[in-house]
């Protein structure tokens, strides 16, 4: 049985290194058979908006958009903090493919099932 792993991502263009490393770790987790969720919150919520991540390419890493696409294609789950998304004036029509807007209760439910968690 696979374990559960959560990457809480609070960064985007404000700290592209953290945003990128968060998805590198998430890809490693999903590739190792973990049921993996990336929770985009605070500034990380911007990453759920179409076109936003395409401008982020941290030296020494694959482009962030490529890492995000790989994560979803590998079966990773992408959740977006509902109040964080709304606070930033983002529109549901601009949501990237594979992302789901969720509230805190969904996150708490996943963590209460024994998920390990890391934050970037």
CATH superfamily: DsrEFH-like
Number of DSSP-assigned strands:
5
Detail the poorly predicted runs. Answer: none
Q: Estimate the helix proportion, in percent.
A: 25-40%
What does the overall shape look like?
A: globular
CATH architecture: 3-Layer(aba) Sandwich
Oligomer description: single chain
Q: Report the top-level CATH class.
A: Alpha Beta
Total number of helices: 4
Radius of gyration: 13 Å
Number of domains: 1
Structural class, by secondary structure, is: alpha/beta
Round the mean pLDDT to the nearest integer and report it: 96
Question: Sheet bearing the most strands, described?
Answer: 5 strands, parallel
Beta-strand residue fraction: 15-25%
CATH domain topology: Hypothetical Protein Ychn, Chain: A
Pfam family, one: DsrE
InterPro entries: DsrEFH-like (IPR027396), Sulphur_relay_DsrE/F-like (IPR003787)
Strand and helix map with partners:
Elements: E1 4-9, H1 16-31, E2 35-40, H2 64-73, E3 77-81, H3 82-87, E4 99-102, H4 104-112, E5 116-119
List keywords for this structure.
single chain, alpha/beta, 5 strands, 120 residues, 21% strand, globular, 5-stranded parallel β-sheet, Hypothetical Protein Ychn, Chain: A
